[in-house]
Amino acid sequence: MYLALKHIHLFCVALSLLSYLARGVWLFMNSNLLGKRWARLLPQIINAILLLSGIALAAYLSMSPVNQPWLMAKIIGLVAYIALGVAAFRARNPAVGKLLWVSGLVAFAYIVSVAFRKTPLGFFS
Question: Residue 2, Cα to own-chain centre: how many angstroms?
Answer without folding.
Answer: 21
